[in-house]
Amino acid sequence: MSNNDQQPPWGRKKRPQSPEEIVAQIIKKLQDYFSESKKPAPDGGEPSSPGGQKGPFAVISKVLLLVLFVIVFQGIYQSFYKVAPNEVGVVLLFGKYSRTTEPGLHLKIPYLESLTKVNVRQIEKQEFGFRTRYPGQKSSTDSRGYDNESLMLTADKNVINVAWIVQYRINEPFDYLFKVQDVTQAVHDLSEAVTRRIIGNMDFDYVLSNRDLFAASVKQELQEQLNFLEVGVELVAVQFQDINPPEQVKPAFNEVNEADQDMKRLVNEAEETYNRLIPAARGNAQKIVEESHGYAKERINNAEGETLRFLDILKEYRNSPDVTRQRMYLETMQAVLPKVESIYVMDESQQGPLPLLNLRSNQNPAKQGQ
Fold it and tell me: At what angle do helices 19-37 and 56-79 cross, to 10 degrees?
């Protein structure tokens, strides 16, 4: 059984038509309409229109009708627009800013409002001092012919070759479209001016050893300048690819760098010797000074003690001279005799000395016999 036999008794069900089919049907009907108007009359007279009108007025009216239809159709078509997820739409009414629309499907007034789409997520990049020739996994760069961008003068009057990249994206579509005529050129000129000014205030060695800090300073100041000019872009990154002396002075620079490294090595060795010897010498000096203070204090205390002792003895001597004299004699003998090895008593009536006592009882036998 065919498909026609399977149709319901009330007729074939109409399926929804696509916009292309509708437009094709309208164009076909217009063609049929004008072809009917050009058919000759049955009696051989002028061609007649379906409405019964004759002559050029019928053609003009049909042309006007066609133009009106095209205008209406185009107006309806222009009333709807779609904004991609990575874009925003800037709508102008009679050339004046009206609104900014977010991604999605929107409606605008045809012929009165114009639309400009701005990609706010695409990262733009500008290169300074070099250019990427073949971007991709095996990209290659060329720095020849870009000396005007890369050569700069430092604060210590040295020439340096700098290559860097500035990445940015649009964050204010209205400012980007209407505040600055050439945003790309503005970003290029401001980036080069800010970089040259900051490098001109830094020494050569500082720029080489503080690349990240230098890039952060350039990014911050460049963003401030862009905001002041209302360019409508936001910096994503500022990366310095290469910071080196020019090729013509590299040999001399390497020699200077080696000499500078030798100087730093000798200075470090001298500082190491200084830190090792000077603190020890200072410690010994402080030790001697403290010992001298202690010795002086000891001598003073001993002198004061001897003075007080002498005064006490003098006082007792004045009270009883004989007793004091005898006591002093005994104390002196008690202090002297332990240090004497042999004692001899001399008598006038004797011809030779007589040994009295052996006070060194712990002496060696060999020494005692001497």
Answer: 170
